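Researcher: Next entry in the queue.
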Amino acid sequence: MAQHHSSSANARIDGAGSEGKIRAAHLLVKHKDSRRPSSWRETSITRSKEEAIQMLKGYEEQIRSGEKTLGDLAVSESDCSSARKRGDLGFFGKGQMQKEFEDAAFALQPGELSGVVETASGVHLIQRIQ
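Model: Structure for this entry, 130 residues:
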């Protein structure tokens, strides 16, 4: 019978009770120097890192102005396969993401949006969900 009982931390189906984990969404723009310069959107990405950053800053302006949400933009503009989930990466803990991404995501409060974050994958906007 005890096997069917769990602590409140394990009882949440969505994983929110997972100690030390956060949930975030992101929008990724890859560039020609990204570790894998291709995506579901483009088979060969040739834009420069500077162009990718400028694109991302434009998306950031749209999000901060309330014109669009990160999820709205991620669906059509993100080079990550998480685009189909509106950029949602689910819950993750320390050591599961690239260090630059992890540091930025864990520094955010729920609902907060990062500025441009650079990783080996490309450039990201990150929004902490929980």
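Model: The chain has a mean pLDDT of 88.
Researcher: Noted, moving on.
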